[in-house]
Write a structure and sequence with these properties.
181 residues; mainly alpha
Length: 181
């Protein structure tokens, strides 16, 4: 493990010119640093020399070079790490959205769902326990909003009254005629 090849024995199927061209093409920083380590190793430099040139720790340089020995040139890119699987499947999420959009909550006359009610529905229907914060994040990810529209004042005028008021303002016709022409 500590005896990594160097020079022509390091990445024997890859030429130094190919590593340099990959380095010049690469846009991302981390893969570029990894390729730089591989270029220096291909030139025959020691791990300590590479660590000093790249300003990385010796152990980091060794790990990078070891990855190149195992995976080849593809080691410049990180391996995508999968996350934790979702508790609800895609089909369950779709049915949840249909249910929430189709009906209001059973004991809420306002017709709006609360996170507590959605959390309880998910627990009963799918057997999955979520926290209220996670339910909120789930609803946002599904494109649902839990905000209630701001109510209008009971004395708020309708559109017709607003138009009548605007026409009484001095200079209203001058403004509208200028905008029309």
């Amino acid at each position: 493990m500590w005896d990594l090849p160097k020079g022509e024995r390091f990445l024997p199927k890859t030429e130094l010119s190919k590593l340099k061209s990959l380095y010049s093409i690469e846009q991302k920083t981390k893969p570029k640093i990894r390729l730089l380590c591989a270029i220096h190793r291909k030139k025959g430099e020691s791990i300590d020399e590479i660590a000093e040139e790249t300003n990385l720790k010796r152990r980091t340089v060794h790990s990078i070079l070891h990855r190149f020995c195992e995976r080849g040139v593809e080691a410049k890119d990180s391996i995508k790490q999968g996350g934790r699987p979702s508790f609800l499947t895609v089909r369950q999420r779709k049915s949840l959205v249909r249910y929430l959009e189709g009906r209001g909550p059973p004991r809420n006359e306002g017709g709006l769902w609360t996170t507590k009610e959605v959390k309880e529905y998910i627990r009963k229907r799918y057997g999955v326990k979520y926290t209220s914060v996670h339910v909120w994040e789930l609803l946002q990810a599904l494109g649902l909003s839990m905000q209630k529209p701001r109510p209008r004042h009971y004395r708020h005028p309708n559109e017709e009254d607003i138009d009548k008021f605007k026409k009484k303002l001095p200079g209203w016709y001058a403004i509208t005629e200028r905008e029309a022409s």
